Amino acid sequence: MDKLAMNKTRTSSNEAPFWERPLAELDRGQWEALCDGCGRCCVHKLEDEETGILYPTNVACKLLDRRNGRCTDYKSRKKLVADCVTLDRKSLGSLDWLPETCSYRLRANGEPLPKWHYLISGSRESVHEAGQSTRGWTVSEDDSGDLEFHVVERAL
Questions:
Q1: How many CA atoms lie within 13 Å of 130's alpha carbon, on the beta-carbon side?
Q2: Which residues contact 62 (CB under 8 A, 6 or more apart)?
Q3: Do 128 and 135 contact (CB within 8 A), yes or no?
Q4: Which terminus of the chain has a smaller tally of CB atoms within 10 A, N or C?
Q5: In sequence order, what are the beta bridge partners of 60?
Q6: Which residue from 108, 112, 109, 117 is spatially nearest to 23, judged by alpha carbons?
Q7: What are the distances in angstroms from CA 9 to CA 2, 3, 27, 141, 152?
């Protein structure tokens, strides 16, 4: 969304931009626009069966365009990836594995979007420039092999 489009998201000069409003007030387009394109929700995690602790890997879903942090077939993702999680208002509270910088998580907690979020910066590249995306450190699941060999220290 460019700066001109961002300005059109306000209905009056006194109204807050949609990304500052409560999630319950957002329409579908606004909800989808909250995604910062980091791609980190599409990185595989391993769970320790005894402790329940999740360990991130550097392996991304085969549908993730790791360069731009977006799904290559968003519309059909559930058909193509059986365990793809649908992020919506109902599921948000139970997805504690979402990155702490996830826009949905931040807004659900009443926190502002980070400066590098494209709705704030005006650039889709800022998430990558800030080092908050999957760009440059992930591999596709098609090329990964055994996930245990891909656990990373990087916090999600």
A1: 17
A2: 81, 140, 141, 142
A3: yes
A4: N
A5: 43, 140
A6: 108
A7: 11, 10, 12, 37, 38
Q: Answer yes or no: are the C-beta atoms of 134 and 69 closer than 8 Å.
A: yes
Token pair of 109 as six digits: 């907690």
Non-local CB neighbours of 68 within 8 Å, separated by 6+ positions: 37, 124, 135
29-46: burial string, b at 16+ Cβ within 10 Å, e else? eebebbbbbbbbbbbbee
- CA distances to 23, 63, 111, 133 from 92, rounded to whole Å, are 11, 21, 15, 20
Question: Dihedrals φ, ψ of 124, to 5°?
Answer: -65, -15
Residue 86 is classified by DSSP as P
Confidence (pTM): 0.82
Cβ count near 70 (within 10 Å): 16
| Residue 140 buriedness (CB in 10 A; 0-12 / 13-18 / 19+) | middle
Contact 125, 136 (CB under 8 A): no
Beta strands per DSSP E along 64-133: 64-65, 70-71
The 10s digit of each residue's pLDDT in 67-105 is 888 999 999 999 999 989 889 998 998 898 899 999 999
